[in-house]
């Protein structure tokens, strides 16, 4: 589902470290995205320090508007929970779900794609069928079914999203492996008698990674959006505050207290935006052919 | 080879390809669905708020849920072999007529959303590529990123408040004015009015993807030798853009669009819930919640076929776009 | 016998609306100055699509919402559940309570032209006693239905069933056409999808996922009623969109609080809308916290009492229900006036006592201030259970009980609680229905601890005294004696706390001001709507 991942990306050229960094810094969108992402990550890391206590505790009177009571600068929800605290703690959950889901998807996708692309033949044929099979199933429906099989806890949700997103990565990695498996350095590694696992892991994989790195940001973004969609359908984890869950809870109050959905919606939008800007930046720098060259 | 014969060949290959795929889908999904705790009898009793041991046993016997799983799977495959998708425990009717009654609504929503996403996305992408690095590019890039980053259901709800409640321009629930008895042009306009908000909510994410993809692949194309050659031959820049650059840049876009059919159906689950759209997405969600295995299996099968057919059409389209593919 | 409810009464009834809610413009279903007018279309909004259009095999609320429009019952009830004539014009109960004689309305025809007769009644009762989710218990004592002539049906009972006379409303006991059901599989009978009935509306079409259309039955026995030419039932799954549909006038009528609870107050200020609470007295719900008495923590009465002391029912009504509920500490809802015991709970809101009880029970606060952790499952149907679970987590956290709220869909919930019994405690709603023997006994009767059966005795409560009272009340013919037995029962379970009854939700009906003549009977919008009419 990612835009950037489909853009053809060449393997990372052996550029001196300094030049790479300068290339990143010359890209204002990338710098903005990174700064934004750093802020979100910092909020997530220091959530318990910024807002000690359980963000789900009913601390104030319900439905206070932002700035109405400076003890709760962003207001309270229908159960009197602090929205600011929820947003900050929610950053942690949303990012964790996003990163875990992306990691699961990347791990499965890379494994399947690498095996299929490296070995080719019937193994490739079978695995490609498997990818196609998964790609004909609407991913969101698959996530819903997996969440229904488990319970809607953050771990199950992250796993479900990961399990539904691997075919995209597998295709990407397979394509890389197919183009790299006859490369000179691979042929020479084979001549030296290296085993397949070693060639896959230490020779081809590092060279196949750049497009996967670019795709990662899109996968994290997608996972955050999917989690929000699940929470919207009342299938989120009720024990944790996530931004999707806040939209889901606030949706009942769309007309009377729209700030509830607006604030959490903005948090999601900004985070996904920052992930995309970072992904674009990586893409432009790692792939000299795209962007302004 | 004539285009028609080629298309027939592609479709035939796709359909042959589809049979083992369908079998895989059925077996995988059948087993997956049985992993969900509870069954249709539990849900029916839970929704009714009352039950006795006897009624529970009767419900299970009625829908064959008291059989061992393997027997149920064989029964289902037997139904399939007779071109039947089985019986819905929840709706007390055949699955095929049930799906058929809701397929048109979903197809029109998906096609409208996909069409909107392609037209707007490719349009934006072209503008962005033509003004690369200048303010129209930057502005549209930001707009497109916002489309990407904002959850579609959130946009949908906000649109309901603005366009349906505040302004009263567009309807917010259903797919037509009930009992208006419209015909011809009036009917078409009525349907279109209902289609606007849901298809916009469904397409916003894909608009972003196609815009970015079009931009990237057009920029990639512009650097190709044959484009430079065309430019050096003195062809008008617009002609080059449309005939050569766009045409070739559309190949990745159409590939991705073919893959997106399944994603669109997944997205339809949420959008159809927001807009009360009588389609398959909501039926699928209800089937999951209702443990109505046959309905869900039927929808997943249908979705696989639609995706396979869509991909076959993309193959044909790409053959037209890129002569090199045709020769392969 | 003439039908006792004309639109003329409605103005008087209007005054009874919404006494407890300080909602502005909360006016009842007032009649227009000119009286009922024929014609027009009424659009009824439902939260979900019915699964069948006849509430025989399934009593899912959306099916109840539409069933009576086509399929009628023997009786109807006023707000206090006193029977009124419908397909039966007169009835009598033998003094021993063992036979019920119903005189049927003459000249009634099914929509396909066939004559309605006592054979249909006999067939329906015996069929429902087999296939209806509650039929097996409601009609358990009915041995046969005799039909001495075409317009007389006599129920013969083995034991008295004092609740039976209240069970005969159209939605609970629909009278089905024998000539269509006889010899078929009732679950697969196409009549569930395109019903034939005797009712005021004729089924026209069902567009899946979108709406159902009914048209006026010109040959209905209550002519000139029904007043409406057409009834459209539309399904709107999203709460915010439903609210918008009421505001814009796209839908006319919805019941059982058809919008988000917090949106009711705002909609009550919309000039075109009327909000009433009448017409919801056939089925009162009680929201409960059910303990698993086999759970290591909750089998200790002190722990249960501590939980009870930690709960502020007034706060629940305010925070979770936005005022749209009545605190209720007993299993029988205040709405069932003669049965409900108004005595206060022996365990009032008192956090200090709760803490002391937990200390005594041997659960001191640990290093993290937590005494023990338990999961809380909530019934996902309805939008009140999740905020309720969140309230409980917060309040129980204050006395050192760490609560992990566990979410799941209805299938998983039913399986977990009733089949696997893999739960500690759960928030659940239970309907009292029309009588405590039908709605309440199942939850406390030790013989109804049956694994795999939803809404049975999930707590695994077993008290021989309670069993004797419930079994006695089920066959007690003397109403006074019966009430006394239920009062005693409430006293005992109040002390034993196998569950904690929290409140009884107040359901509101929202109607556009142009709609009149709805919510006249106990089953309100679920009734046939033959008296409903619209004005310009």
Give an account of the 3D structure.
- The complex is a heterotrimer of chains A (293), B (328) and C (536).
- Chain A contains eleven helices and no strands.
- Chain A is mostly helical and 293 residues long.
- Chain A is elongated and about 70 Å long.
- With 328 residues, chain B is mainly alpha-helical.
- In chain B, strand 1 and strand 2 form a beta hairpin.
- In chain B, helix 5 packs antiparallel against helix 6.
- The radius of gyration of chain B is 24 Å and the shape is globular.
- The two termini of chain B are 12 Å apart.
- The relative contact order of chain B is 0.14.
- The mean pLDDT of chain B is 83.
- In chain C, the strands form six sheets. A six-stranded mixed β-sheet of chain C has the order 14-18-13-17-15-16, sandwiched between helices. Chain C has a four-stranded mixed β-sheet with strand order 1-10-9-8, covered by helices on one side. A four-stranded antiparallel β-sheet of chain C has the order 4-5-7-6, covered by helices on one side.
- In chain C, helix 11 links the parallel strand 15 and strand 16.
- In chain C, helix 15 runs antiparallel to helix 16.
- The chains are: A mainly alpha (293), B mainly alpha (328), C alpha+beta (536).
- Chains in contact: A-B, A-C, B-C.
- Chains B and C meet through helix 2, helix 3, helix 5, helix 7 and helix 10 of B and strand 10, helix 6 and helix 12 of C.
What is the N-to-C order of secondary-structure elements of chain B (H for helix, E for strand)?
A: HHHHEEHHHHHHHHH
Q: Helix/strand/pairing class of chain C, anyone?
A: alpha+beta
Helix segment tally of chain B: 13
Count the E strands of chain C: 21
Largest sheet of chain B: 2 strands, antiparallel
- Major beta-sheet overview of chain C: 6 strands, mixed
| Mean pLDDT level of chain B | 83
Q: Helical element count of chain C? A: 16
Number of strands of chain B: 2
Query: What percent of residues of chain C are in strands?
Result: 15-25%
Please name the defining characteristics of this protein.
A: 293 residues, disordered N terminus, disordered C terminus, B: 328 residues, mainly alpha, 2 strands
């Amino acid at each position: 589902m990612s835009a950037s991942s489909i853009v053809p990306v060449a393997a990372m050229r052996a550029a001196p470290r300094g030049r790479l960094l300068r290339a990143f810094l010359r890209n204002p969108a990338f710098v903005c995205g990174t700064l934004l992402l750093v802020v979100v990550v910092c909020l997530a890391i220091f959530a318990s320090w910024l807002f000690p206590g359980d963000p789900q505790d009913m601390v104030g009177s319900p439905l206070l508007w932002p700035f109405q009571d400076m003890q709760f600068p962003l207001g309270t929800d229908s159960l009197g929970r602090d929205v600011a605290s929820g947003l900050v703690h929610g950053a942690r959950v949303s990012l964790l779900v996003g990163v875990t889901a992306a990691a699961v998807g990347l791990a499965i996708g890379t494994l399947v794609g690498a095996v299929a692309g490296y070995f080719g033949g019937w193994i490739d044929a079978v695995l490609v069928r498997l990818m196609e099979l998964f790609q004909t199933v609407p991913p969101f429906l698959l996530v819903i079914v997996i969440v229904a099989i488990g319970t809607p806890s953050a771990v199950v949700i992250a796993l479900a999203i990961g399990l539904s997103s691997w075919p995209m990565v597998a295709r990407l990695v397979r394509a890389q492996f197919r183009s790299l498996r006859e490369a000179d350095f691979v042929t020479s590694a084979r001549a030296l008698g290296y085993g397949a696992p070693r060639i896959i892991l230490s020779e081809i994989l590092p060279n196949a990674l750049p497009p996967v790195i670019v795709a990662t940001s899109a996968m994290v973004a997608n996972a955050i959006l999917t989690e929000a969609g699940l929470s919207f359908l009342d299938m989120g984890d009720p024990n944790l505050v996530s931004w999707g869950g806040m939209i889901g809870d606030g949706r009942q109050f769309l007309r009377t207290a729209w700030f509830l959905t607006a604030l959490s919606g903005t948090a999601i939008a900004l985070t996904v935006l920052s992930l995309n800007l970072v992904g674009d930046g990586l893409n432009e720098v790692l792939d000299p052919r795209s962007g302004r060259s | 080879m004539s285009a028609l014969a080629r298309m027939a060949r592609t479709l035939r290959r796709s359909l042959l390809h589809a049979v083992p795929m369908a079998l895989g889908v059925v077996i995988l999904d059948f087993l997956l669905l049985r992993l969900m705790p509870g069954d249709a009898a539990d849900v029916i009793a839970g929704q009714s708020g009352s039950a006795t041991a006897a009624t529970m046993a009767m419900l299970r016997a009625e829908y064959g849920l008291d059989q061992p799983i393997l027997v149920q799977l064989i029964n289902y495959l037997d139904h399939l072999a007779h071109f039947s998708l089985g019986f819905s425990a929840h709706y007390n009717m055949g699955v095929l007529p049930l799906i058929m009654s809701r397929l048109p609504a979903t197809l029109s929503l998906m096609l409208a959303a996909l069409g909107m996403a392609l037209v707007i996305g490719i349009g934006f992408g072209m503008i962005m590529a033509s003004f690369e690095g200048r303010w129209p590019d930057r502005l549209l890039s930001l707009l497109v990123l916002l489309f990407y980053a904002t959850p579609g259901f959130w946009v949908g709800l906000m649109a309901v408040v603005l366009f349906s409640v505040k302004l009263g321009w567009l309807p917010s629930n259903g797919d037509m004015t009930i009992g208006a008895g419209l015909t011809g042009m009036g009917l078409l306009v009525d349907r279109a009015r209902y289609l606007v908000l849901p298809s916009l909510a469904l397409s916003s994410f894909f608009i972003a993807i196609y815009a970015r993809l079009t931009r990237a692949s057009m920029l990639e194309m512009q650097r190709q030798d044959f484009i430079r050659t065309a430019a050096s031959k003195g062809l008008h820049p617009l002609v080059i853009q449309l005939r050569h650059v766009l045409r070739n840049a559309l190949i990745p876009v159409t590939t991705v669009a073919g893959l997106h059919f399944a994603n669109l159906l997944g997205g339809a689950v949420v959008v159809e819930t927001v807009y009360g759209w009588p389609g398959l997405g909501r039926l699928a969600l209800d089937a999951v919640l209702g443990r109505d295995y046959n309905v869900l299996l039927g929808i997943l099968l249908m979705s696989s076929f639609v995706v396979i057919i869509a991909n076959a059409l993309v193959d044909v389209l790409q053959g037209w776009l890129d002569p090199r593919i045709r020769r392969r | 016998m003439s039908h006792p409810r004309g639109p003329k009464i409605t103005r008087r009834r209007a005054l009874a609306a919404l006494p407890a809610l300080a909602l502005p413009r909360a006016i009842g279903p007032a009649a227009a100055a000119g009286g009922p007018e024929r014609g027009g279309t009424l659009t009824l909004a439902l939260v979900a699509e019915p699964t069948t259009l006849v509430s025989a095999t399934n009593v899912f609320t959306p099916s109840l919402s539409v069933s009576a429009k086509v399929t009628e019952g023997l009786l109807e009830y006023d707000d206090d559940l006193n029977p009124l004539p419908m397909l039966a014009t007169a009835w009598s109960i033998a003094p021993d309570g063992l036979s019920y004689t119903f005189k049927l309305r003459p000249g009634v025809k099914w929509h396909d032209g066939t004559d309605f007769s006592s054979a249909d009644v006999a067939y329906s009762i015996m069929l429902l006693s087999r296939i209806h989710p509650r039929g097996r218990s409601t009609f358990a004592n009915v041995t046969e239905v005799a039909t001495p002539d075409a317009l007389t049906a006599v129920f013969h009972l083995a034991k008295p069933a004092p609740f039976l006379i209240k069970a005969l409303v159209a939605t609970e006991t629909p009278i089905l056409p024998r000539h269509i059901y006889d010899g078929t599989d009732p679950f697969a009978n196409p009549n569930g999808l395109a019903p034939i009935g005797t009712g005021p509306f004729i089924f026209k079409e069902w567009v899946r996922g979108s709406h159902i259309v009914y048209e006026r039955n010109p040959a209905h026995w209550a002519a000139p009623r029904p007043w409406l030419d057409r009834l459209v039932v539309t399904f709107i799954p999203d709460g915010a969109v439903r609210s918008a549909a009421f505001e814009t006038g796209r839908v006319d009528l919805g019941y059982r609080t058809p919008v988000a609870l917090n949106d009711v107050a705002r909609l009550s200020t919309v000039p075109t809308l009327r909000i009433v609470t009448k017409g919801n007295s056939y089925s009162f719900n009680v929201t409960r916290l059910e303990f698993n008495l086999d759970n290591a923590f909750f089998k200790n009465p002190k722990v249960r009492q501590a939980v009870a002391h930690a709960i502020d029912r007034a706060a629940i009504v305010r925070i979770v229900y936005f005022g749209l509920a009545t605190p209720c500490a007993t299993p029988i809802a205040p709405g069932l006036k003669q049965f409900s015991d108004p005595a206060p709970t022996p365990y009032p809101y008192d956090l200090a006592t709760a803490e002391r009880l937990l200390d005594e029970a041997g659960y001191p606060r640990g290093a993290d201030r937590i005494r023990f952790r338990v999961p809380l499952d909530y019934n996902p149907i309805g939008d009140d259970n999740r905020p309720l679970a969140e309230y409980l987590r917060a309040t129980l956290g204050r006395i050192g009980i760490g609560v992990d709220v566990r979410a799941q869909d209805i299938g998983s919930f039913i399986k977990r609680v009733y089949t696997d019994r893999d739960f500690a405690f759960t928030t659940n709603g239970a309907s009292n229905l029309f009588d405590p023997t039908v709605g309440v006994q199942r939850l406390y009767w030790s013989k109804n601890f049956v694994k795999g059966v939803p809404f049975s005795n999930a707590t695994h409560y077993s008290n021989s005294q309670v069993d004797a009272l419930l079994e006695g009340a089920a066959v007690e013919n003397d109403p006074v004696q019966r009430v006394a037995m239920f009062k005693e029962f409430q006293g005992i379970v109040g002390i034993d706390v196998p569950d904690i009854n929290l409140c009884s939700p107040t359901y509101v009906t929202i109607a556009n001001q142009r709609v009149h003549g709805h919510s006249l009977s106990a089953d309100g919008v679920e009734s046939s709507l033959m008296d409903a009419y619209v004005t310009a």
